[in-house]
Write a structure and sequence with these properties.
about 425 residues; alpha/beta; Rossmann fold; 5-stranded parallel beta sheet; 15 helices; binds 2-acetamido-2-deoxy-beta-D-glucopyranose
């Protein structure tokens, strides 16, 4: 394993090296389209990104991340013949994003021309040593090294707009970086986002706090990374054609203890009834399909849940340890209409990618208190939605699909014309920065 990961790391290293050289020499020919959209990629010493990849198997409390570094962070393909499906670990969004921004058409080597400065720092990977490793008792230090670099090496780049034009990806919930500086040893997390010096920068995280400050949540990467329009279109045809043989699906773990919570209620409801009367004539529709993903068995194994998601009309997205779920996005890729139980799961998170005012057109919200304490049955609520309405909602889910997926780097022009999660995140960052004048 050690030698495999070294090889992977080296491959990645050389590829980045090659690309960065090529890209930074070249100035886009589409200057007019780039007005107000130039991005400068800050050159950081490799200890802030590539070197960190060699720690991919250092932390026994997390999975060994090494196999998932393949394909610039998309992970290994699910099987050899597939063109679009990978075993993607969402923690590696920092690599995925870095690789993708190298293809952004409006990069400039001159920070003075840039509207935004991207820091290719793998903050989440670096945080592992504070969260699980030897630096657990110095989590307030997370970011010190980066700050020294920014304030000492060409300090005018960082200072000209007091950090307002800088952004980075932190591929974990913002909560993991929000430990108060004064709590030592920490309860959980590092203090990166609590440092006043970083208050002005923008962090793209997988989940924002209840009162977000610097951060904006972006979709969790799923396993679907097509590289050309025909692959996306044929998948969408499959999603449309798929027979939805169950009303609702829950793919997840938890809910086994006696504590009253929404996962427990879902588990009880799903294991109680499995079949209802035939909807039309001969064909039975299952009320609830349950994919048990306890102990992380579904991570990196999308086949376990994608097929059931394709066969279900609705996908239940209850909060767990934290309010957001990767499964929200797996479900959207499968054309499975999300059912939310609190606004913190998506509506208050992904304002850039999933327009807040359109939520009721592509999702259902049932307050968790109604289910847990007031005896509302989820199946009753969903069955009361007319068929035509369900079909309309599914079409809206399918419309959202390109916006939340991460297409593969090096994609064809046709697919590049459809904005994906990275394109929308970049638009959002540029707009956020320019709105600060
Ligand atoms: C962190 O601090 C705790 C309590 O102060 C101590 O028990 C533990 O050994 C320390 N961990 C490390 C890695 O230094
Ligand atoms: C953040 O920006 C404000 C101005 O918008 C500035 O006064 C403040 O000093 C900045 N903070 C840091 C740490 O640079
Ligand atoms: C289980 O099913 C029975 C009969 O359909 C119903 O009366 C009961 O309320 C159900 N229990 C739960 C927890 O849904």
């Amino acid at each position: 394993m050690a030698s495999t990961s070294t090889v992977t790391t080296l491959t990645i290293f050389f590829f980045f090296f090659f690309i960065e050289l090529t890209v930074s020499q070249q100035i886009s020919t589409v200057d007019s389209e780039c007005t107000g959209r130039w991005i400068h990629i800050r050159r950081l010493p490799s200890r802030f990104n590539l070197d960190l990849l060699s720690t991919c198997n250092h932390y026994p409390l997390t999975d060994d991340l090494c196999p998932y570094l393949a394909n610039h962070g998309l992970g290994p393909k699910t099987h050899t013949r597939t063109r679009s499906w990978y075993r993607t670990d969402p923690l590696l969004l920092e690599l995925i994003f870095h690789r993708r921004i190298l293809e952004y058409p409006c990069l400039t080597p001159d920070p003075n021309l840039a509207s935004a400065v991207y820091l290719p720092y793998y903050a989440g990977i670096d945080s592992l040593r504070y969260l699980y490793g030897s630096d657990v008792n110095s989590s307030a230090d997370h970011g010190s090294d980066l700050l020294s670099f920014l304030t000492q090496d060409s300090p005018e780049i960082w200072s000209r707009r007091s950090g307002h034009d800088h952004f980075l990806v932190m591929a974990r919930p913002a909560w993991d970086f929000s430990q108060p500086l004064t709590v030592d040893p920490p309860i959980w997390g590092t203090s990166f986002l609590e440092r006043p010096e970083f208050f002005n920068l923008t962090a793209l995280t997988l989940e924002s706090r209840f009162w977000p400050w610097q951060e904006q949540a972006v979709p969790y990467p799923t396993s679907f990374h097509p590289h050309s329009l025909p692959f996306l279109e044929s998948w969408i045809r499959r999603v449309r054609r798929s027979r939805r043989t169950s009303l609702m699906l829950f793919a997840g773990g938890g809910g086994t203890s006696s504590t009253l919570n929404i996962r427990r209620s879902i588990r009880l409801e799903c294991t109680n009834v499995t079949e209802t009367e035939p909807e039309t004539s001969s064909e039975k529709i299952k009320t609830c399909d349950f994919v048990d993903c306890s102990n992380g068995i579904c991570e990196h194994d999308p086949i376990r849940f994608m097929r059931p998601m394709l066969q279900s009309s609705f996908c239940l997205q209850p909060p767990g340890d934290t309010p957001t779920r990767k499964a929200t996005f797996d479900g959207i890729i499968a054309g499975c209409i999300p059912v939310f139980f609190e606004d913190q799961t998506a509506k208050m998170q992904y304002g850039w990618h999933l327009p807040e005012e359109e939520f009721s057109e592509f999702s259902v919200t049932i307050a968790k208190e109604d289910v847990v304490f007031r005896g509302v049955r989820i199946a009753d609520v969903l069955m009361s939605i007319p068929k035509e309405e369900v079909a309309r909602m599914r079409e809206r889910v399918i419309e959202m699909m390109p916006r939340v997926m991460y297409r593969r780097h090096g994609a064809s022009m046709g697919l590049m014309n459809k904005k994906d999660a990275v394109d929308i995140a970049i638009d959002g960052v540029l707009q956020k920065i320019s709105s600060r004048g």
